[in-house]
Fold these 2 entries.
Entry 1:
Amino acid sequence: MNYFSSNFKLGILGGGQLGKMLLNDTRKFDIYTCVLDPSNEAPCKIASNEFHLGDLMDYDAVYNFGKQVNVLTIEIENVNVDALETLEKEGVKVYPSSKTLRIIQNKATQKLFYVDNNLPTAPFSRFAYTSEIKEAINHGGLSLPFVWKCAQFGYDGTGVKIVKSIEDLEGLPNVECITETLVPFKNELAVIVARNPSGDIKTFPVVEMEFHPDANQVEYVICPARVSDAVAKKAVEVALNTSKAYNHVGLLAVEMFQTQNDDILINEVAPRPHNSGHQTIEASYTSQFEQHLRAILNLPLGRTNSKVGGVMVNLVGAEGCSGNVVYENIEAIMKLDGVTPHIYGKKQTRPFRKMGHVTIVNEDLNEARRIAEEVKKTIKVISE
Amino acid sequence: MNYFSSNFKLGILGGGQLGKMLLNDTRKFDIYTCVLDPSNEAPCKIASNEFHLGDLMDYDAVYNFGKQVNVLTIEIENVNVDALETLEKEGVKVYPSSKTLRIIQNKATQKLFYVDNNLPTAPFSRFAYTSEIKEAINHGGLSLPFVWKCAQFGYDGTGVKIVKSIEDLEGLPNVECITETLVPFKNELAVIVARNPSGDIKTFPVVEMEFHPDANQVEYVICPARVSDAVAKKAVEVALNTSKAYNHVGLLAVEMFQTQNDDILINEVAPRPHNSGHQTIEASYTSQFEQHLRAILNLPLGRTNSKVGGVMVNLVGAEGCSGNVVYENIEAIMKLDGVTPHIYGKKQTRPFRKMGHVTIVNEDLNEARRIAEEVKKTIKVISE
């Protein structure tokens, strides 16, 4: 298949910021790209060759879109997997596969998959409904505290709650869910693994998600992670074993906990470009987006090491601000060394909505981390 | 002016590959962008917010387009400057200015400008018509050999000829032209200077254009240039003085000769992103395209030093091939370390047409240069 010809069409399910950044690389390689998204204001509307409006969970919308392309990928997991399965049977190359997505879409299935494949993950229990949890606690089958996770459709922090007392269960949706032992961890780490259909595999360096000391929120993604070589090696091994078990094509971002004993436990995975890899655009020889494209098109994978140290700060909507977005002090942060803002192009801000990110690169990682703090203190995503 | 709002519009005259690469950065910053180009197949048609069809040399086309934007820039010099002058008077910010463009558009005017500003350049003579040259030789006012240059509209090697004998003059168009003393040079160097309206100035590192030993054609752009610190310093000084004389806003790419005595002579300039800066996308902290955008929007200029060594190879159409383009062996070069092809998206190839470029980055510049040679030997731009 000649990807670099106008007879080839790549389809992307989802037209958000990840798709938008992927389109930079389809444009760089001049690959014809079609995007399906439910919103007429999707960031991908520009820069795709064809933009199609449609519901990603709708069988017909996904099937009809998929029939028009040669290779189909995703930028969001919540898509109609039955349609993908039919498309695969009918010869469309779907990466990640319907099989991979089915396991990942449901957190209970995903956790069982790790257990079945002897992959390290925190102990958990599965419930058909949240209402069954109280009974399990009362019968001694479950002890507090734990992490409650909605099994399906949780995304970016929604659908996850730390439950310390029975009262914390109140207000949670009564849905299929899992409870996970609360693991006291030293670090949250991530490794992005790329694999193409020929079976070539490359891993990006281990990154560290640095949390705010008070708020339980990732503040910085730091590449490379400030951990020992032994811990980094173990994290890469776990990520590679996870990749092997899924047998995925494209990227697999593996989020992990480094426990107090320096064990590595898988938290969850994403079979696509991921927030923990944004700094690769400026810091790595190959960006995660170019690498995803190389992988799904069965091109040779690019170098994954870093040119320089990288730190990423998410730009999320400020609390109390809703409406037309304003990036306050963006010019001030652009004065700082090695600072690149990425604005996703969403017109409306809402509290905690992901509106962009800022990458800080420097030959000295500590200096990048210092500048990142200044960036975080300075820029604000507010409304008009 | 809030550039990061939907009320702001940036206009670009020209929709070719330079505009296309600039659009990557307008998309990154979510800046609303309008492009004017005469071809419906222009690489900028995708990824601009608005694409307008029109002749860049036509007063009305340029004026009417310019009236719709807040800041107007170019990706090609051959545009209607009278329209730009009117737009400036009417409050549109035009960078580079009509004044800068008027000097640069005509090679005779450009050379006189260097003389007037005590900037070093090779001696030259000016002729209203090529036919007058023979007379000058006969009267002893001009001696062979020399370089003949068409004064206007020469681009990418057209409009330039080395004249060694009177017979070489035959077949040249009878137009306004200059003749320049043939300078035996050690190296052709270039420095890109960025300047914003506030007067902030930054220079990218000196690059070297390595020529094919037989064919008189640039084969590689190498960053940084393999010259002594003293020569590099002198080249930067000449570039800065040139920038100061033009008082331009945006980028100014200054092409220079390093003579046998290590003098620096200005060859010519381009007030925009330039072929000698493509490697900045992968090699520099700030790409030339992002820097041009920062400069014309009066944003702080970014760091211009390199993360790693960079070499750039142009992808031009192979001799004897015309028609639908095929990039032969593109997958083979993507196997090599640190290799990124940029495909401009032109559907038709012609001999020597610029169809793309390949950047090779490496922590070791010599290794990048070695891989670049392999790239050049391997990939071919042919027709179906």
Note: The mean pLDDT of chain A is 95.
Entry 2:
Amino acid sequence: MSRRLFPQPLDLANGRVDMSHGAGGRAMAQLVSELFAAAFENDYLAQGNDAAMMSPPPGRLVMSTDGYVISPLFFPGGDIGSLAVHGTVNDIAMAGARPLWLSAGFIIEEGFPLADLARIVEFMAGACKACGVPLVTGDTKVVERGKGDGLFITTTGVGVVPEGLHIAGDAIRPGDAVLVSGTLGDHGIAVLSKRENLDFDTDIVSDSAPLHDLVAAMVAAVPEIHTLRDPTRGGVAATLNELANQSGVGLILQEAALPIRPAVRGACEMLGIDPLGVANEGKLLAFCPAERAERLLAVMRAHPLGRDSAIIGRAVEDDRRLVQMETEFGGARVVEWLNGEQLPRIC
Amino acid sequence: MSRRLFPQPLDLANGRVDMSHGAGGRAMAQLVSELFAAAFENDYLAQGNDAAMMSPPPGRLVMSTDGYVISPLFFPGGDIGSLAVHGTVNDIAMAGARPLWLSAGFIIEEGFPLADLARIVEFMAGACKACGVPLVTGDTKVVERGKGDGLFITTTGVGVVPEGLHIAGDAIRPGDAVLVSGTLGDHGIAVLSKRENLDFDTDIVSDSAPLHDLVAAMVAAVPEIHTLRDPTRGGVAATLNELANQSGVGLILQEAALPIRPAVRGACEMLGIDPLGVANEGKLLAFCPAERAERLLAVMRAHPLGRDSAIIGRAVEDDRRLVQMETEFGGARVVEWLNGEQLPRIC
């Protein structure tokens, strides 16, 4: 798009998004050209068509999509833009896949400051670069003031699965070990503390991070991994219940083995919520045959994003498909699958 | 997901979406299982993972995404659900590609009637079936009352480009003929009439339709096609200005050749808007060498979605990259690239 079309550059310092920025005309072209295309610059976007064209590597492909409606848009340890990259990269990685391409759809509320949009786009473009995954195509819509909430982003990712891998939610077998890649609940508590202006003693920051590189190391060392999943919305409790049902097994956790930061544990106690129900955005659960668990743990701990990894439980035969927790005092309780409305808009 | 998890089925007649339906717990699982998975049923969704896995055919892939924020959600000739399928299928088809897979992200406002959601999902699933394109993965988020506007949908499509085709926005050459596949402005005027409760003399309905089958016939007969694009937001005026800039050519239209329904022309006159600035959702513009134009026109007219096709102009050398219209009285005027804020939320 030739610059002479837009006599005045966008006012990124003081300007605001208006309805014309989503209406398909000259103003939208300027926003796309001066803000989005400039930040995400790559050969695919430079094609300038409504669809980007790519040559895929050989192998099976995976595709995943997620909408991001997190409130607030900026939170300790992250922002909606980098989260929208990490979250979708992680969903691709949970198939054992290498992420190849991302797309993004922006739904912006009229009046949203261009300066905030520019910051978010910069963070998002930085996350794409850090992940090595180009944003190949995108879309912008604007809704009237009061019909949105600042900014929603929907990202979609496509990735390729290495030969020989068969990682899926229905593949957990009785006897499998359950591993987690680090501390639980950091993201949800960080977002909640910012949203509600809570003043916890220590600084809790989101764990938002891309896990594809950790996964690549894991599957290279232990291709026998049965299942991977990131415990986002609904936390570990929802994810484990979902997987127990999908695989038709029971799951038993050791309470003492769960890595939870004292600050997060304290915040959860204060708020009266279970850390197992709190969202994570840079952690994964892994299931593998018990005899491979120590090797997998060692590989995970050797990675910067898996330093606090732990073996936290095992899969068992159980027609009721219950998730249970063995407490430190020798008892056991069922880990409920909550409705989760206590923590809305956490991603 | 086993049904026994949800003792009460969703109340699709009188229920409403609440925050728990987006929170990652049991309520969300029920909504996904009983509404989305039931309607879109296919082998990919049945995999039940956050990412769907597919084996692509050989060839280059294209990827495109669009957010749909149309208001109202139901309009003459369509609804947001089928539109979200057609629009993205069409963006894929404009690369000459065959659409393979779709994903969808739903952002729902708290309190939205489940009955409306179910209707929209049914229309959307019907459109997927009619297009032969499965929805392989999806996501649901819920925002508080007053932070959205009923329903927004973002769809992403992946398609495969047949060997030997090189269709792109920068490929128009001076001398090319410009064709359109039918009447202009129907979608925008249909949506506007419903939204503003305008009572036009005749019933104008949206042209929302999937164009991939028409495109397949076109590229089979005339593989020399240089460029295809669907004139959606901003209408023909915005699309032609965009393409003129991308290809570095001028474009000259013949006013008398433009197919516009009298009812649409009348409505535009009444509203004081130019039909060339009004959105279409089932029309395409095609550019091909002049000597192949008659053949292409015949193929387009032979297809049910191209019956009213016409040759409407030509590309010329023009460093200014202007789009001009030759009027019926022998004059010429520049077709402006409007900001387009006169028709917000048209898709």
Note: The radius of gyration of chain A is 21 Å.
